[in-house]
Structure prediction request, 514 residues.
Amino acid sequence: MSQGVDRVIPKPIEDEELLKFAPKIRENFVTYAEKTCVVDEVETLSWAEFGGLVMRVAGRLKSLGIGPGSMVASLSENTAMNLVLYAGVLYAGACMVPLPFSATEAALVKMRSDCGATLLFASPKFRDTADKLGASDIVDLTKLRDWIGDADPIEPVDVEFSDLFDMIYSSGTTGTPKGIIHDHLFRSRQFSRSSSYGMDETGVMMMSTPLYSNTTLVAVIAALVKGATVVSMERFNTVRFLELSEKHRATHAMLVPVQYMRLMDEPRFDEFDLSSYQCKMSTSAPLPGLVIEKVMKRWPGNVMEFYGMTEGGPATVLDCAAHPDKWDTVGQPQPGADMRVIDEDGNELPYGSYGEVVGRSGAMMPGYHNAPEKTKEATWVSPDGLHFVRTGDMGRFDDDGFLHLLDRKKDMIISGGFNIYAADLEAVLRKHPDVADVAVIAIPSRDWGETPLGLVVPARPEADSEEIRDWANAQLGKTQRVSKVEFRDDLPRSEIGKILKRELREPYWEGQTA
Prediction:
């Protein structure tokens, strides 16, 4: 510890049970054979049926020489077959790479090339896009059973904790998107904590965010390991979510803040019986205290808010029932997590100071795929030689050890639970001939929590703001689109030329409670 620096001391991980995914779900195929494993809008699979398919997917992959060290990609909405594929790839010892269908075609091409997956599974909805990604073999995911053919089922391929589990890509329009690597130790440490929110074999987990998102995987993988049931939604809809929750007697859900806001605004919310719920979880963005208050009053079961990164490292949890006076925070460090705050020069700050949050824990990525320099940029090394993940989030710990997030260092916009980087949008807007200068900021959105606003200094009087917006959005991913472009005579800058985004944001956030 640096001289004069107090910090949150991580609690030891007591009786930590590290389980490997494939052997555990192999056990579940038998133990919970007749119980429902996964259900979507098309079919319902028991654990025995799910297991039979997973074992034969793995057998087919093995016959193709795909195993440890191999990567298999997918491009699909949520379905039961997508979950079968995910488990089958892991069962074969290979690494799963779920591509984000919300990314631009150009970004997807870079992702497929970077991971090197020659085998790509795609749903019919995304087949046209898949055909352009350069994979040598594309399989229709709806015809997975036909692809399996007469492949023999196999037992799970033995893997080391250091072997790759999956790789999640950050979205972006500039450069090559970063592939965030997760090994089996990373995932094992995550699902070993699932008992903390009451997940066991009696659980029913609602899956309403995309399977390519770490938000989804944290909850769904843990549910499968515990022998629970997963209810898969192709896309989120408030009424359908409530209908399925009531029908299947859901006990758990992982949602992003905007989904909670939409559910609380749903006129029919109180018509549904949600008494089976034990715990709702939230991540991807801070959950506003006013929203927590509404959910705790109207929706049975507790709310657990998690703060962390796809890269791993920092990890906090807020038990909303236990700490009603801390709903303006993202909770305390989880057991085993070491959280600190640093200044702009990388110096560790005294406890309670405001700075960039960094963290380390048992679940940390080995690094970004094929990007050692990016990995180095995302790492802070403490004076005692420990490696921490830099969050880019500005915050402080209060006297009780709860983390208050105060700002985002890199001007990241969190819209609908997805991270949007202003620099990516600005790079596209700058290419328009009528744009002389530009800044993109986050403004409040009832539907998305936050949404990007482009502030443009036009290059000519005849410039059309709506035409510029439409032009840019045609080149951006679905989750990145600019909501509006407004013209400015100039943009405020500091003495060293940096645009003062805080000054730009203030008028839009005045009077906001979250």
